[in-house]
Amino acid sequence: MTDPSDGVRGYMPIRSHRKAAGCRTSRVTFDPVAKRKGRNVDPVVLHPVACLFVRADSVYKTLPGCDCYDAERDALTFAGGMPVVAHPPCRAWGRLRHFARLAPGERELAPWAVGQVRQWGGVLEHPAASLLWPEVGLPRPGERDDHGGWCMSVLQWWWGHRAGKPTLLYVCGCEPGDVPPIPFRLGEPSHVIQSRKRTDYRPHVSKAEREHTPPELARWLVTVARACCMENADLERSARSDDTLQDFVGGQT
After folding, report:
1. Which of 126, 156, 237, 238 could form a disulfide with 161, with the two C-beta atoms 3.0–4.6 Å apart?
2. Whole-angstrom Cα Rg for the chain
3. 111-125 confidence digits (pLDDT tens)
4. Contact criterion met (CB below 8 Å) for 188 and 177
5. Whole-angstrom distance, CA of residue 67 vs CA of residue 230
6. How far apart are CA 234 and CA 64, in angstroms?
7. Domains of the chain and CATH, by start
8. What is the H or E stretch that residue 226 is in?
9. 151 has which bridge partners?
10. Separation between Cα atoms, residue 143 and residue 145, nearest integer Å
11. Which residues lie below 8 Å from residue 105, measured CB to CB, with a gap of 6+?
12. What residues are paired with 63 via a beta bridge?
């Protein structure tokens, strides 16, 4: 990986994603509902999504239309032109940041990722206690920033993580009503990320599991990023409307 400090320090987004040049396109089969029902679906043109700062064994590499940047490929080589799902390193921004052994320029990667989300649209994921929010002026849940960005607080447990893993998501380019359904659930996770309670009976998850994104959450985040490009959002709404209409007509006797 190249020195992350190159071209990152002092980085400021120079234009909004709404003013960005035309995004790249690729043929990706959409309409998963129709696919589950066994209908033939013609591929539609959707913008690919760039997945930044993913693990080498990331689930994003198995999803169609995802252009993945792991440590070897180096997210800083991302040239733009598509919405992003960003998972910048968080250890420089967490509760234990004073104990972290950071690589040169590592702390600057998260603000750089914020700039990519603001410029190209998409979603950034970070721990709920991340100090990135006050550092770069990201909105808290219920607020908006000058870029039209907004924030939501979620538990990764809702998407299948064994621990709760409270998470903040920063979104630019779509409205809260445009995101897919959220699989909210009540209860208590079977594991914890790291417990401060000496009497907590729940086991800790492994280091790898702390870093992995649950597959269902990865799919959800990619769908959110695609909704952050107007052409994609229109195609998705059209596909869902057509499917709902066919289900209604097909159910009449």
Report:
1. 156
2. 19
3. 999 999 999 999 999
4. no
5. 19
6. 19
7. 17-243 (3.40.50)
8. helix 215-227
9. 170
10. 7
11. 3, 4, 5, 6, 8, 9
12. none
